[in-house]
Description:
This protein is of the alpha+beta class. It folds into two domains: 1-44; 46-150. The chain contains five helices and six strands; from the N terminus they run E-E-E-E-E-H-H-E-H-H-H. The chain has helices at residues 63-73, 81-97, 105-119, 121-131, 137-150, and strands at 11-18, 25-31, 37-42, 50-52, 58-59, 102-104. The strands form two sheets. A three-stranded antiparallel β-sheet has the order 1-2-3, with no helix packed on it. A hairpin with a 6-residue loop joins strand 1 and strand 2. Helix 1 packs across helix 2 (81-97), helix 2 packs antiparallel against helix 3 and helix 4 packs across helix 5.
Amino acid sequence: xxxxxxxxxxxxxxxxxxxxxxxxxxxxxxxxxxxxxxxxxxxxxxxxxxxxxxxxxxxxxxxxxxxxxxxxxxxxxxxxxxxxxxxxxxxxxxxxxxxxxxxxxxxxxxxxxxxxxxxxxxxxxxxxxxxxxxxxxxxxxxxxxxxxxxx
Length: 151
């Protein structure tokens, strides 16, 4: 595995364990050249369905897009990186369990909102404001009222 700092091609595995969900192996590695330690995740290769965007176009699934959206919503919130990865894992499981050949971005977005609602309500409102294109303070107020009734 190439070092992300110095690009040396060799690293050694310092620690290896399965993730909580059991669907990946987390490996701590150390670069044999500069000594930098970094984490990698090994996951089985799975055929994901195509993703149907709002404009009707179809694109391949990209885990990083979900991870980035969740990370942005959880920015400066007290949710550890491991929990963020677990949310991404659960969203992926939802996509795979659908059994469909194509999944809409709206179905994925709704699932992300469900996960964030359970994890961090501030992050949920942040994500919902972008996902649902809130344009006014009233939109925020309505979402907060819904959240208050459910919580």
